[in-house]
Amino acid sequence: MKRILFFVFCILYSVSLSAQTENASLARVGDKMVVKADVQLTPCMLKGIKTFVLEPQITDGENVVKLAPIGLYSKEKFYPYLNSYGFSGKAGEKVYSKEQLPVTVSLNESVPYQAWMDGAQLELVHLYEGCCGDSGIEAVDTLSAYAEAPIAYTPVFHTIEPERLLKIERLSGSAAIDFPVNSIELKEDFHKNLAELNKIKESIEKVQKTEGVNIQRIIIRGKASPEGKYASNEKLARGRGEAVRDYIAGKIEIPEGLIVSEYEAEDWNGLRKWVDESSLKNKAKILEIIDSDIDLDKKEASIRNRFPSDWAKIKKDCLPWLRRTEYDIAYQTFDFESIESQITFANEAMQEGDFEKAAGFLAKAGNGPEADYARGVFFALQKDYEKAEGYFLRAKRGNVSEADEALAEISRFRYLRSK
């Protein structure tokens, strides 16, 4: 920066003095503030003046750090100064006599950086001692200024694999689909079959139409009651399950192999549950038989032969209910309550600048390393670098890959703002 300064000394002297500067800069390098400038000197600066001092300083208007000055001395002042009787006596002062005056004096000095220096100026103060006993500050030049570059923290959000945001849910039900005795032929118009088959079909279609849902598997399970020979019941249960599966597969659009059939030859668990909740006269003894490890065909025969009246009630009120078709629709859907989802929602809120909403999600995100990383981003975006660093350290210990880079950046920001 070049500036022309006009000085008036005494009433006897009116001289124009020029102290020009070039290449002036005030820059931070690590923990130092570095000052550079080329100051142009001319002999006329001492015309009519005994001492002329150029004193560089860094100041924000309240705080000041003075740097080594440049002293220009007349012959009568120069040698006494060398004998420690100088004008300012400042350590490091560059001292010149009028006869030895260089054209340019280069300043290159560094001082410890302090926080207040963000926004400070580099000034050159002109001090003089005149021939008539007057002295003081003639002028102050502003050579350069310094301001910290604004911190533009750009967060790198840890991405959670989409599969971890999902959960498997199930829609299960039962349909009372009837078949002719000892038959596996499925007839829509047999008893209430059409309504029961539609119940299965509509349940599947309801899941298919739900946004964000992906069906994983549909199981059609045929069941038979513990009446008659096990081998026959097994054949019937398997065949009836396959018949219902094929019917449903032909009524809805679904990828091949996604719908499967299973079977349970004799539903002894269903029978036990019904008996246990019943008021049968011989309930306890019947439950003992059901819980025994004897052959299944012998169990059925034992109950039927020993307790014929109870068996008649079982046959009328329970066994028809056990001859049914169950369906289970397993589907994948977004898990809104999972920890992974809370972290994802928090990241989205932070990207939108809604930190209140992000804080709510993070409060439900648990204490795992991924949640710690998200909290580190949360505090870094709000310039609380100390808290951010702590969470990033925890995330690093939990092997979150993005934590190392975040720590390097946050540590630098903390350093920049703490000096």
Give a structural overview.
By secondary structure, the protein is α+β, with helices and mostly antiparallel strands. The chain has 13 helices and 13 strands. The chain has helices spanning 75-85, 193-208, 230-251, 268-276, 283-291, 296-306, 308-317, 319-322, 339-351, 355-362, 369-381, 385-397, 403-418; strands at 21-29, 32-40, 49-59, 64-66, 70-73, 94-97, 104-112, 121-130, 135-145, 166-175, 214-223, 259-264, 325-334. The strands form three sheets. Strands 3, 4, 5, 6, 8 and 9 form a six-stranded mixed sheet that branches. It has a four-stranded mixed sheet with strand order 10-13-11-12. Helix 9 (339-351) packs antiparallel against helix 10 (355-362). The longest helix is centred in the middle third of the chain and has 22 residues, at 230-251. Mean pLDDT is 86; it is low at 1-18.
Keywords:
four-stranded mixed sheet; 13 helices; alpha+beta; disordered N terminus; six-stranded mixed sheet; 419 residues
Secondary structure topology:
Blueprint: E1 21-29, E2 32-40, E3 49-59, E4 64-66, E5 70-73, H1 75-85, E6 94-97, E7 104-112, E8 121-130, E9 135-145, E10 166-175, H2 193-208, E11 214-223, H3 230-251, E12 259-264, H4 268-276, H5 283-291, H6 296-306, H7 308-317, H8 319-322, E13 325-334, H9 339-351, H10 355-362, H11 369-381, H12 385-397, H13 403-418
Parallel strand pairs: 5-6, 11-12
Antiparallel strand pairs: 1-2, 2-7, 3-4, 3-5, 3-8, 8-9, 10-13, 11-13
Helix pairs in contact: 4-5, 6-7, 9-10, 9-11, 10-11, 11-12, 12-13
Task: Summarize the structure in short.
Helix content is 37%, strand content 25%. Helix 4 runs antiparallel to helix 5, helix 6 crosses helix 7 and helix 10 packs antiparallel against helix 11.
